[in-house]
Amino acid sequence: MDRRDRREFLAEIGRGMLIAGLGYGTALDLELVPAFAGETSEPGAQPLRFGPREALVEFLQETPVEKLLPQLVAKLNSGTELKELVAAGALANARTFGGEDYVGFHTFMAMSPAWHMTAELPAERRALPVLKVLYRNSKRLHEQGGRKNEVLHSVVAPEGRPADAGERAREAVRKVDLVAAERALASADEADAAFNALLHVVEDGVDVHRIVLASRTYDMLSLVGREHAQAMLRQSIHYCVKEERRNGARIPEVRTLLPQLLDRHKLARRKAGTMAGSDAWIEDLSKTIFTAKPAEAAGAVAEALAAGFVPDDVGRAITLATNQLILRDAGRSGKQIQAGKPAGSVHGDSIGVHACDTTHAWRSMAAAADDRNRAACLILAGYQAALDRTERGGDFLNWQPRPTDEVLKKVSANDAESLLRQLDGAIRDNDQERACAVTARIGQLGYAPRPVFDLLLKYACSEEGALHAEKFYRTSSDGFADARAPHKWRHLIALARVTASEANQPAAGYAEACELLGV
Q1: What is the average per-residue pLDDT within 325-340?
Q2: In whole angstroms, what is the distance from residue 437 CA to residue 400 CA?
Q3: Which of 7, 62, 211, 226 would suit a FRET pair with 377, their CA atoms being 20 to 30 Å apart?
Q4: What is the pLDDT of residues 111-121, one digit of tens each?
Q5: How much is the average pLDDT of 416-434?
């Protein structure tokens, strides 16, 4: 037995003893075992294979993490495209974890954002975010047993193509019937139909991972190819069945509220509105959503859609509401403090980061969905924005958004280079208040945003960010690009704050990747 096999063998013994001591249910809650180990597929299911990419997928599953980065860089130097590495990483992750492993699905959700980051980097540094995420992916693959413990296997689609795939998948998930849910999804014969069917399931709850995972699975189709839609989308089915098993006794309010609002405002078959909202209208709707109770916020969104406002403008208002959760957050305290997440920090799974990432995901799915699901996604985005403010604690209505006048007055520099140096220094010092104020000052003086993004991108590549650095950079950069002019810099200020919070915690594998690339 070689050293690696011996380590794996002993690790499996230790994991088994721990599970036996805790009990299977507790071990499941602590993510120590897959949710459906041994029962994830229908009888006779065959292993999934990914055609021409299969060899690269197997390489990522089987290569020990300590040997991974040199071999990845060698593949890049020999002509393998960076896009192919991301696609193979996503397929390896999906096949192994199937949406059931906490670190696993967080890593999957970082892959598409990491790929988008490459387009903003100089050629010599372009591979860094991808290598960073693939290193994390490989580490978790081996921790969970790799090829031996794959969750996703083949699914045989039922005869015919019924039109109610979404409703059947949703009912199967509510019954915690994984096989029936996967078969229902498989009955949708093309990617967009399967995605819209999946949304009927996703819309049954509003936890952040349920939403962001579904969005990233669809987003990843542009890299892996639409022929792999089932493998991507089934991850969300597995996640939702797991959550139903864990929390099914608590029926979410949205399961009754959403159909009521869709019916009351006749939104299920309504085409997208064409009436643009003014900057002031977007601001006002944002304040309504931010201050409302969840059902009231959902109702306000439904009314705006029924009145004929452009869905993107409704979405912009929801995005501004969740942005306030970052700008106003007092930071972690008490039991929220953890290793890597000190007092006052706001990176990782903070209320604001989760809320902004969730709104970004709802809006991304709304843009790709049919009429019914577009309305449903935006209604639930409004609901969840208000829920995050009210359910997770904090006096957000009375806390002041950053930057405060007191801190802003201390920023006296006027030239762009000095301000960028001050911003970099604030980030290195983990000074969130000063980072927000300096970023705001740069915007007030009318300087270009790109140098600020370049600085923050450097840290999004290098820092761990408690599994959220890549995702939140994408959320913020998309928010900036999409926002109306008076609202744009709020997204950069929020990103600067989160970057200052997460600094000085470099990601595993990043230094080695830099050395291998010579940067």
Answers
A1: 95
A2: 13
A3: 226
A4: 999 999 999 99
A5: 98
CA 50/CA 92 separation, integer angstroms: 9
Q: Which residue has the tokens 């359910």?
A: 391
Triad 489, 494, 498: Cα angle to 5°: 150
Segment 167-179, tens digit of pLDDT? 999 999 999 999 9
pLDDT mean over 238-258: 90
What is the average per-residue pLDDT within 79-84? Answer: 98
How many Å apart are CA 141 and CA 64, to the nearest integer? 9
Mean per-residue pLDDT of the chain: 91
DSSP 66-91: HHHHHHHHHHHHTT--HHHHHHHHHH
* Residue (of 397, 394, 317, 316) closest to 350 by Cα position: 394
Q: How far is CA 230 from CA 65, 153, 301, 385, in A?
A: 28, 11, 31, 30
- The residues, any chain, with a CB within 8 Å of residue 139's CB and separated by 6 or more, are 65, 508
Query: Is residue 481 classed as helix, strand or coil in its secondary structure?
Result: helix
Q: Which residues of 45-83 are buried (b: 16+ CB within 10 A; e: fewer)?
A: eeebebeebeebbbbbbebebeebbeebbebbeeeeebe
Tell which phi-psi region holds residue 156, choosing left (phi > 0), alpha (psi between -120 and 50) or beta: beta
Domains in the chain, start-ordered, CATH in brackets? 3-149 (no CATH), 165-247 (no CATH), 254-391 (no CATH), 405-510 (1.20.272.10)
- For residue 16, the Cα-to-chain-centroid distance in whole angstroms is 31
Which residue do the tokens 């959902």 mark?
298
- The backbone region for 44, taken as left when phi is positive above 0, alpha when psi lies in -120 to 50, beta otherwise, is left
3-state helix, strand, coil in the chain (%, to 5): 70, 0, 30
218 near 82, Cβ under 8 Å? no
- 473-515 pLDDT, tens digit per residue, is 999 999 999 999 999 999 999 999 999 999 999 999 999 999 9
Determine what percent of the chain is predicted with pLDDT higher than 70.
Answer: 91
Closest by CA position to 379, among listed 457, 315, 308: 315
Contacts of 201 (CB under 8 A, 6+ apart): 166, 169, 170, 173, 181, 236, 237, 240
pLDDT digits (tens, 9 = 90+) for 145-156: 888 889 999 988
The three-class DSSP label of residue 81 is coil
Among 347, 332, 340, 338, residue whose Cα is nearest residue 393: 332
**Given the structure tokens 């200020």, which residue do they identify?**
493
Which of these, 491, 439, 477, lies nearest to 322 by C-alpha position? 491
